[in-house]
Amino acid sequence: MKTFSVLAALAATVLASPTPTEELVARASSTSLTPITVKGNGSSRFYIRGVDWQPGGSSQLVDPMADTTTCTRDIAEFVKLGLNTVRVYTVDNTANHDACMQLLANAGIYLVLDVNTPLYSLNRATPAPSYNTVYLTNIFATIDAFANYTNTLAFFSGNEVINDDTTTSAAPYVKAVTRDMRQYIGSRGYRSIPVGYSAADVDSNRVEMAEYMNCGTDDQRSDFFAFNDYSWCDPSSFTTSGWDQKVKNFTGYGIPIFLSEYGCNTNVRKFEEVASLYSTTMTGVYSGGLVYEYSEEGSHYGLVTITGNTVTEGPDFTSLQTALAGTPNPTGDGGYSSTGSASTCPPQSSTWNVTNDALPAIPSGAAALMSTGAAGKGFGLTGAGSQNAGGTSTGTASAGSGSVTAVATSTSTAKKSGASGQSLDVRPMIVSGVVLIFSFVGAALL
Ligand SMILES: *[C@@H]1O[C@H](CO)[C@@H](O)[C@H](O)[C@H]1NC(C)=O
Ligand SMILES: *[C@@H]1O[C@H](CO)[C@@H](O)[C@H](O)[C@H]1NC(C)=O
Ligand SMILES: *[C@@H]1O[C@H](CO)[C@@H](O)[C@H](O)[C@H]1NC(C)=O
Ligand SMILES: *[C@@H]1O[C@H](CO)[C@@H](O)[C@H](O)[C@H]1NC(C)=O
């Protein structure tokens, strides 16, 4: 979200008790969509055709998926737009999302979910104290709340934590969080739901950020990379926008990449970039993207205006609808790269203040959750906040320490990955009658 990322040092004064656990008992799972994995075998690709969805924005934080009325209302609009994915920035991990996730699945729509909230997030200015057990417990509880839905496409470990050159020193913490989430998903025996970071549109370190999230040992590498991009302002073109350079610079990048926000609003939006994004000039590198944003929240990015429970489609809605309808996905594999190699970690520079490849070790209290799980321990939207909660990392991680060493056995509460009885391996899979064998661009991880 352009205005909401990880808010610094938020009020530890907001008090609330951890929410009772009874809301986190068994959830039904949505069963009608094929789970998405990072690497298909190239016979059919999945392109994200999505919008960012957070009615109320960051100023009036509400979990849109905790309320069936909201979901029903907005999903009807998503269907009109022809979407297959939505991104939600903040959810209440104590709420029940069964109904909304099922409604999304019924509409053929996947969810890309940010796990952070303003109160439970890294602090970009002082990342070390904010990387702690309480924080990780909360985001693991969010994973628990969504892992069982087949239409949970991916998790974002962070959004725009690094937003200039100075804050690049927070990068090892972003990468450690990504590592820990991946280890948690593996250790809990969940389906291999992809985890990656959503980077800000920062020219001076975009490539370094991408390389960094895909360098090091396999346990440290993300499943995908995404960035927010506002450089195509209609009228524009592939070259005028600089998207040609963003294709060139990321050609051969070893993990899938997509735009987690796009839609410059400097001029009248015709969404002419849609035709470019889903053409083979870009699909060799990119797997689509998400338009910022569904609802108008005061900064003129909204496709619709919501008043009470009434949705009014604005001119941007119609433009996007027309653009998407007129832009099919490429046939075949879209020219994706089948190499999946690690990047070289970027060297320290005036725009990249990371001295070496070392990452902080996971805090011991969070490491313990790999075997016990965090279900029922989430704080929702009203907890006391985690940024100064203690229980921090006490050392540097050793190589491979983020690997999955033990997988929780199935119990009544451990959500096994086989929600719909399909193969859930990250490796190629075929599901009869369904064409969404997934591969984002390129990129085998394993
Ligand atoms: C996960 O989904 C399966 C299949 O629908 C269901 O049997 C199981 O109870 C769910 N587990 C949880 C913890 O919600
Ligand atoms: C993909 O995998 C399926 C099943 O393993 C196989 O039948 C098919 O030929 C493969 N397609 C490609 C393009 O490799
Ligand atoms: C680089 O990061 C370190 C902390 O890791 C900090 O002490 C230093 O001031 C930063 N340098 C710049 C130029 O921002
Ligand atoms: C592409 O890479 C070059 C060389 O590293 C860099 O100077 C340029 O800023 C990059 N462009 C974009 C759009 O990322």
Automatic annotation (TrEMBL):
Q: What is its EC number?
A: 2.4.1.-
What is the membrane topology listed in the Swiss-Prot or TrEMBL record? Lipid-anchor; GPI-anchor
Per the record, its GO cellular-component terms are: plasma membrane; side of membrane
Which UniProt key words apply to this protein? Glycoprotein, GPI-anchor, Lipoprotein, Membrane, Signal, Transferase
Q: Does the keyword Nucleotide-binding apply?
A: no
Keyword Membrane in the entry? The reply is yes
Molecular function in Gene Ontology: 1,3-beta-glucanosyltransferase activity
Q: Using the UniProt annotation, give all residue ranges assigned to the region (Disordered).
A: 326-350
Q: What domain of life does the native source organism fall in?
A: Eukaryota
Sorted alphabetically, which Pfam families does this protein's record hold?
Glyco_hydro_72
* Signal sequence bounds: 1-16
Q: Where is the composition biased (Polar residues)?
A: 338-350
Q: Which residues cross the membrane?
A: none
Q: Which Gene3D superfamilies match?
A: Glycosidases (3.20.20.80)
* Localization annotation: Cell membrane
Q: Output the GO biological process annotations, alphabetical, semicolon-separated.
A: fungal-type cell wall (1->3)-beta-D-glucan biosynthetic process; fungal-type cell wall organization
* Recorded family membership: Belongs to the glycosyl hydrolase 72 family.
As for what it does, the entry says: Splits internally a 1,3-beta-glucan molecule and transfers the newly generated reducing end (the donor) to the non-reducing end of another 1,3-beta-glucan molecule (the acceptor) forming a 1,3-beta linkage, resulting in the elongation of 1,3-beta-glucan chains in the cell wall.
Query: Which protein are we looking at?
Result: 1,3-beta-glucanosyltransferase
**Which species is this record about?**
Cudoniella acicularis
